[in-house]
Design brief:
Blueprint (H helix, E strand, L loop, with lengths): L2 H15 L12 H10 L5 H14 L3 H5 L3 H8 L5 H19 L7 H6 L5 H12 L8 H10 L8 H11 L2 H17 L18 H11 L1
Helix pairs in contact: 2-3, 2-8, 5-6, 9-10, 9-11
Amino acid sequence: MTLKERYRLTFEYFEAAMPYADTELKYVEPFSLLVAVILSAQCTDKRVNMITPALLGRFPDARAMAMAEPGDIFPYIRSCTYPNNKAKNLSGMARMLVEEFGGKVPSGLADLQRLPGVGRKTANVVASVLYREPVIAVDTHVFRVANRIGLVRNAKTPLSVEKQLSANVPPEKMRMAHHWLILHGRYICKARTPLCGQCGLRNFCQYYASLRKTIRK
């Protein structure tokens, strides 16, 4: 099977099985999404969605959060991973938004990555979800699923996966591809116990093929 055929079959399956896919982070406007994505680093979306209502109720926009010290933010996010660092990043991010961007979340990837707590993955998520940019964020789910299916070859880093996916996914499908791969990894192609029996991709998945070979031996 060629790489082109593998992509075609993968997207045909997702388009039929998951015609609509979007982020599971709850947000109402750009600032709340940016806050949620920063909090989601190495933390589940479910946990983040439990944290953000109270946090954003107290600091509803960049100007309100910019006036807060990390110690003011910490009690609201103490149940997520790395709360001390994230409190510092949220405070610094909000201040930069106010001081340099008029309190608005910028759309450019370079500007987004200048914000404290915003790396390449976070910037890509915001650009994709908010601004419909044809970019793909590679988290642990996307990295795992893309490698297992065989959409990428010898991809050892998230950046390598991102570059290969970007080269092969049509721009109009990029945003959906990001969510398809995340959700598939979250609910089917799990890290430790993948549900291969429930997977519609198993007929051409390289990981499943390797499992079958191992069992035969």
